[in-house]
Please model this.
Amino acid sequence: MRNFVQAVIIGVLTGGVYALMASGQTLIFGIMKVINLAQGALVIVGAFLSYSLFVHFGIDPFLSILITTPVLFGLGMLIQLAFLRPLRSDDAAEMSLLVTFAVALGIEGVLTLTYKTNYKSIQTSYANKSFDVAGYEISAVRLYAFALSLVALVVLYLVLERTRLGRAIRATVQNPTSALLLGVDSKKVAAIGFGLGAATAAAAGAVFGLVYAFNPNSHYDLISRLLSIVILGGLGSIGGAVVGALVMGVASSLVAVFGSPVWSDFTFFGVLIVVLLIRPQGLFGTTLRGAS
Amino acid sequence: VTKLGLVRGAVFVALLACFPFIVHAHWVLNIAVFTLMYAGLASAWNLVGGFAGYPSLGHAAFFGAGAYVEAIWFHHHSIGSGYLPFVALPIVGLVVMVASVPVAWVAMRTRADVFAIVTITLLFVAQTLAFNLRSLTGGSQGIGIHPPPFALAIFERPFYFAFASILVIAAGLTFLTSRSRMGLSLLAVRSDEDKARGVGVHVTLAKLTAFSVSVWLTAMIGAVWAYYVTFVYPQFAVDPLITIAMVLMTFLGGRATLWGPILGAFILAPAQQYLAYTYGASRLYLLAYAAVFLVIMLFLPRGIIPSLSDRRFARTRRTILAAANAVAGEQVEQRVPS
Model:
């Protein structure tokens, strides 16, 4: 029982971090119907930026987010404008999938040249601190990370619900054609939406770098987790992404405690396969492009 | 079968067969071996990624699985040395194929997007398995295979012919696919799966067949590769770069064409090997790959061969139209009373 509760606590904290990354991913899908395979790489970019700011300028990772978020927002817009917008063939969906994959590789290449392939981690003064709550150990970094993810998610929610831009984005998600007819500049929305999705990678990256060791290669691992979460939650649903992330976090943490840490990596794949078998549209998703 | 196509195929096979007897430099042969390997891989990918329009991003997993099956078989129950491992190839391919079909079935229940997601996840799962099933795969230590006992002077030859045979088989299957009901079914799936199902195409059967054949070929190539490099490490056997190479070469040459993947491989593989020899920094070509990939996607999205035949078609059309106009013009002139 003790182990169980401890595992659930860790799982929820981990899930919170993934929730932030996955919501960026699913937002991009919702707006553009593009599966962004570069999301994992963008998170790693965020992690490396925070790492550099911490190592060279001593800026705390939680503060560095204020700098990295605009950078990643710009990078996301750039990717959309330079590589995704010009695609105009019949199978733009398939092409954009592959283009984002190429972008991910390019990012990995640049990061490998800049930072080499050694594993890095952001070692803050509070890296090994932990709180003791009712006899359960809660790592300080993970708790802060979870709190930050929540804050970022709330900000994202407010942007989407309370601003004019957010309304335009939601309209595009619901029905691109009607939104266009009602005067939403869909091209601008797509670019800004991609930027927003990428911007979530800044906070997520800082947090990821605090909790885990990472290298330029880590994005394959991340992207497979993120995609499993997004499919579990239902592609395009931000609420679904949050719930999916928490479920996956708790599930893999339970497997790590009661099975072995090695197998917890496979929880994601197992859940992904089960979801596709039972409910291909995910928990909160509408029916996928042609899903049977 | 057109006469020109037959001649083209025969010349290609003849050139392939003669090459190792004309060229003896080991470094050239080494590049040739890898070029044929990639040509085979791209042709295999084309069956499912090109014809059916299901872009698999996890084919490196099947390549790696083939390599591991070969190496493990070798290690635990010696398959014998010399040419015997080549004879065992179809079985290695079958083993990987049988293991992969259930996953493919699940992944293909939904559409191309989700299929791509499952396959990229599969890549990661395969790599993690290779690292962690230590008793079977040796973990990060890798598994060794006894160096093949071929004479040094002709060391590359058996591998060259093994890859060449697989390439010819792959090309033959591609040709059969493009000329059969099967190919039509796949192209129908690619353009509109629901409509295809509606008019009575056995959608699932077509997709799974294409996938299985593709995996079978990929795994065999992986097995030959394992025997050639004699050492299988997780990070090289299940390398995302291999997937990328397959996709890239197919896109460069032209999807759903017979010669496209081969042409793409013959352009990119030597370039990649040559760059790796001269500059060494293998991770530099990650960037080069990404750049080439983006350039192709943006400026040549249909690939070389379809673009060329488009141009030829447009030219023929122009000549015919010009001729027709000329004739029409003459007729008009004739009708005008002078």
